[in-house]
Amino acid sequence: MNQQQNYCVIMAGGIGSRFWPLSRNRMPKQFLDILGTGKSFIRSTFERFVPIVPAGNFLVVTSEQYKSLVLEHLPELRPDQVLTEPVRRNTAPCIAYAASRIAAADPEANMVVSPSDHLITGEADFQSVVREGLDFVAGTDKLLTIGIKPSRPETGYGYIQVDTAGGSEGGGGAIGKVKTFTEKPNLEMARIFVESGEFFWNSGIFVWSVSGILKAMRTYLPEVEAAFAAGRDRYGTPAEQPFVDSIYPACENISVDYGVMEKSPDVYVRCGDFGWSDIGTWGSLYQHAVRDGQGNAVGGGGEVLTYGTSGTVIHVPAGKIAVVEGLEDYLVVERDDALLICRRENEQHIRNYVEDVKYRFGEEFV
Amino acid sequence: MNQQQNYCVIMAGGIGSRFWPLSRNRMPKQFLDILGTGKSFIRSTFERFVPIVPAGNFLVVTSEQYKSLVLEHLPELRPDQVLTEPVRRNTAPCIAYAASRIAAADPEANMVVSPSDHLITGEADFQSVVREGLDFVAGTDKLLTIGIKPSRPETGYGYIQVDTAGGSEGGGGAIGKVKTFTEKPNLEMARIFVESGEFFWNSGIFVWSVSGILKAMRTYLPEVEAAFAAGRDRYGTPAEQPFVDSIYPACENISVDYGVMEKSPDVYVRCGDFGWSDIGTWGSLYQHAVRDGQGNAVGGGGEVLTYGTSGTVIHVPAGKIAVVEGLEDYLVVERDDALLICRRENEQHIRNYVEDVKYRFGEEFV
What is the pTM of this model? Predict the structure, then answer.
């Protein structure tokens, strides 16, 4: 594997409204250090891949409004390594754009695509998996997704079923052909999935050759592929952004899972069991946070005193003090001009609260 | 009654730690508009008395650190009308100082003494009572306290028992001789008090002639009286503050109730039933606050959205938003750098929390 041909695309356009008010429109989750590790999620993501991919071969896809934040968190990148989408159109257009951009520079390149806001604890294991994946796809049209060995019947994730009949291929002992992608299951289904041993969590991390993914898009999302292919001569020039801004709004709003991976017959999964979480909910954050003797997860840098309080997530910013009495299994989160108090069991309603806040008091609180 | 001989002493040295973090050391309760009336407690207190007492005849006794705040809230006053105590020594030294100061200007004056942070809703009734009281004490040594007809068996107030055998005196039909002052009773006692019809809440508002109170102090607190009498020639001169600062620390720390009123045989009570509360606790604030359909009392100027929340006091400052889900009978109070969440039934612990905060994180949070 020629490391100079490895590219990494970090998708960083999310706004993380499930973590309001910690995650704000102007400072979404990927730029936060919610877990108190000392590094933002996007910084950790970069550092996870940089032993495999040269810093000059990273691309971050995000919104224009976050471009300067990305460069602040990843000062190793040149400004032209931050691609800005004028509108959000899910992962397929984002990946088509990044792959076309890379193909214009190196048609033989291989790429790994990753969300910017996940937690991975078994970093060395993860890096082995990515290296193995890059070797597996290099010079082929194979599309590889990384699956996570499930540790519990989680209903918040999509699952990938591996085809156990097919055996392994391409030298990767743990790589199997994908049989099905499934949406988020109910609990009963999730239990069956986990017990079967054939199902893995869909991490949203992909590995493929640039030519392989573009070929698959040409077949399954031809309009999206053609739109970005038309920009070949403009990529890396001042004409790039106006071109992208002109074609993006008309792109189909579709995920690469649904638009390509579930349709192509050439899709594989590498199953890993490094520690992984999408930290998509307060519940998953709570699982990974350091907790005190009463099971309270305190963070954010502020000072906290608790009395008769347990199982509660308390985040207040540095310079602030919170005295909390008599709460059991709550979220207490303050950031800037917003305070949320909510039972942990009702965290799925937070998105609705944010909508209510926006409707009633305006965008500035969101 | 010669109105020019009426003086009003407003005691404004409290720090209101029971209302932390709304009330802060640097901005105690008397300077706040906790009830959302549009006026601070001290401003309302001033306006309540100014139809009876000329603005030039007010004295406010407070700490040096609040002098400029007092003048900001009461711009009608000259700076020399704000007396500053170098240390807190309860109400007897405070009243001895103010009375001696007034006596130096007009030995024939009458004075009313009032806390700065109480709520009175029946203002016209209250003013009648004060006028009647001033007429009653003028030219006598009678000490008059204002009692409030109890509406419930409150255990948070002291009570005054009126001597029903004695009949009325001095022309004030509702004025009776005091039989006993009592400390805060337990609930059973409080019920007996209320049912008896002989007991009234002790409002901490006093009316007397300056000569009358100084004479009583000479008898019951001779050292305190003598200390302030020695300053007669210095009051109103640049020598006043150094003199006061020199004698104050050695003064006995004692209330006028305990030091004088409970000992003197010449003590009367005028029973009123204008609306009154000392707003001494969140519970009493809650009683007087406007509440929404779920019994939530929202204030402070911020924006609040509640879901499944009832009986809860929510105070957040202007420019801030709070989303509160799933609380029943709580306090949620934010101010500047501090947030308190506490069950209403545990509000009596707030003082302890404030002590803990001070000990652990320092004065700046208190």
Answer: 0.78
